[in-house]
Amino acid sequence: MIEVKGLTKKFAQRMIFENVNCQLVQGKSYAIIGKSGTGKTTFLNILGGLETATAGTVMVDDQPVSTKNLPQLRRDKFGFIFQNFGLVDKETVAYNLKIGLANQRLSRQEQTIAMKEVLQQLGLTNVDLKQRIFTLSGGEQQRLALARLLLKKPTIIFADEPTGSLDADNADEVTRHLLHDFGDQATIIVATHTAEVWRHCDYLIRVENCRITITENIAKGEKPA
To answer: Does the keyword Transcription regulation apply (predicted)?
Structure first.
């Protein structure tokens, strides 16, 4: 569980949000929504320890997100997915996927089996483990980033506009895998401006007028107008 207490963020004299208190529970998906410039990505980054707050605390399973604890949280609990995919472009598919297996004691053969299984799960059976990342399409690269997360098995996933650079078909495919393939094993937090993404989430986190509110997504599963 993520617990936020008294969270405030300012840039110079500009208040982004103030005195935010909320809880994000295990196994649920959350979409951070709001107009451009309201602080969606800033809030996501603070939760994931990529930015610091002006005041307040973020706790993960009763452990503060702090400089001291971040290496362990990133190793054991956190997973990230970004609009630019976050892959090592000049390296192979296998090299990138093995990053997700770094903390698992598997033989080389077991690693290969795990990588091939996750590629099949994500519809990437045409992708070879020896293939270079730059030869893949944008949709394939984002699904590969998801495959790496599935191998790592994080309990909290932070996604910043994960479909922002994809066409409609690939965006829908990535969203479906992101929000369903992890089951109830992970808390998923997505910063997005896209209805095709947030309509699949359990809760909506609205960032507006320096405030952050969380409501159940009563429109979950409905197609956007």
So the answer is: no
Residues 168-192 have pLDDT tens digits of 888 888 888 888 888 788 999 999 9
Same domain, 207 and 145: no
Provide CB contacts within 8 A for 209, sequence distance 6+. none
| Residue whose entry in the numeric block shows the structure tokens 């969203």 | 175
- In the structure encoding, which two tokens stand for residue 13, read together? 């004299």
Tell me how crowded residue 6 is: count the other CB atoms within 10 A of its CB.
Answer: 12
Please give the residue range of the domain that contains residue 102. Answer: 84-153
Q: Which pTM value belongs to this model?
A: 0.90
3-state helix, strand, coil in the chain (%, to 5): 30, 30, 40
The bridge status of strand 63-64 relative to strand 187-191 is unpaired
